[in-house]
């Protein structure tokens, strides 16, 4: 659903906003919500080799897995601009990683990893199977695949569809049944799914002006801020309100 030029245009303005990642960052810090997600689903990843498919851009998730969790990380992406941004982010944070410029669909792994991850990538593929097969081929025996997508079933997704039609059109909804069935057919032995994230009201910047957008925008900020005090939505995800839905599978 997207090509290199699309992602180059997304990431080309990003370098000016890059900065060092704080250990106290609510989402990506040492004990932030992302670290809690990784520890809950993967346990300790210290010293393990992590591959992220579609890992270009301002990738604080991959950075945090290296900076705070001591994983050996690799980002693969076909966007030149995206790779420039993630490399610069790692340099600013004095962290090291590996960066591969390749198209996932035409890429053949030359080594295998303990864990493969991707965040917000699979929904850009009309057919999820080829990418999941690539994930499988890049994993060691008993390796784990962890990935997530925007929760397009959430109540707030209807606002995204109505007010951000161009952005919405770049995304494909893949049902839980389809994803789990495909993972099992490829050869994964154990498959699970979950929801997480703050309540989902705003999925993209508004493209169409409409009544009621300002209150929705404000409410999304309130929901995100409230998770700092009451992180229940991150701990106990819900199909109708959570920002993201995820899957974990074992080879």
| End-to-end Cα distance | 27 Å
What structural class should be given to the helix and strand makeup? alpha/beta
Number of strands: 7
Biggest pleated sheet? 7 strands, mixed
- Cα-based radius of gyration, to the nearest Å: 18 Å
Low-confidence stretches: none
**Mean pLDDT, all residues:** 91
Broad CATH class: Alpha Beta
Q: Provide the CATH architecture.
A: 3-Layer(aba) Sandwich
Count of helical regions: 10
Major sheet: arrangement of strands = 3-2-1-4-5-7-6
CATH superfamily, called what?
Vaccinia Virus protein VP39
* Shape summary: globular
CATH topology: Rossmann fold
Q: What share of residues is helical?
A: 25-40%
* SSE order: HHEHEHEEHEHHHEHHE
What is the number of independent domains?
Answer: 1
Strand content: 15-25%
Describe it.
It is globular and about 55 Å long. The protein has a 7-stranded mixed β-sheet with strand order 3-2-1-4-5-7-6, sandwiched between helices. By secondary structure, it is an alpha/beta fold. Helix 1 (4-11) packs parallel to helix 4 and helix 5 (129-137) packs across helix 8. It has one domain (4-151, 175-198, 244-250): Vaccinia Virus protein VP39 (Rossmann fold). The protein has 10 helices and 7 strands. The relative contact order is 0.14. The model has no long low-confidence stretch (mean pLDDT 91). InterPro entries: SAM-dependent_MTases_sf (IPR029063). Its EC number is 2.1.1.222, 2.1.1.64. It is an enzyme of class 2 (transferase).
């Amino acid at each position: 659903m997207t090509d290199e030029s699309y992602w180059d245009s997304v990431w080309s303005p990003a370098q000016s906003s890059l900065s060092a990642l704080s250990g106290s960052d609510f989402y990506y810090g040492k004990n932030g919500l992302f670290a809690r997600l990784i520890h809950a689903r993967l346990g300790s990843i210290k010293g393990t080799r992590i591959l992220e498919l579609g890992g270009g851009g301002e990738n604080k998730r991959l950075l945090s897995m290296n900076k705070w969790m001591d994983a050996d990380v690799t980002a693969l992406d076909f966007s030149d601009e995206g790779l420039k941004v993630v490399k610069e982010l790692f340099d600013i944070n004095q962290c090291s990683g590996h960066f591969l410029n390749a198209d996932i669909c035409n890429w053949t792994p030359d080594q295998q990893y303990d864990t493969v991850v991707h965040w917000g990538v699979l929904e850009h593929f009309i057919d999820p199977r080829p990418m999941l097969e690539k994930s499988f081929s890049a994993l060691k025996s008993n390796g784990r695949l962890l990935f997530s997508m925007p929760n397009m079933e959430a109540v707030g997704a209807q606002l995204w569809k109505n007010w951000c039609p161009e952005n919405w059109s770049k995304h494909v909804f893949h049902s839980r049944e389809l994803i789990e069935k495909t993972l099992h057919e490829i050869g994964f032995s154990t498959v699970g799914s979950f929801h997480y994230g703050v309540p989902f009201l705003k999925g993209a910047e508004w493209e169409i002006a409409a009544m009621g957008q300002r209150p929705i925008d404000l409410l999304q900020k309130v929901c995100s801020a409230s998770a700092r005090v009451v992180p229940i939505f991150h701990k106990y995800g819900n199909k109708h309100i959570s920002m993201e839905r995820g899957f974990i599978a074992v080879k």
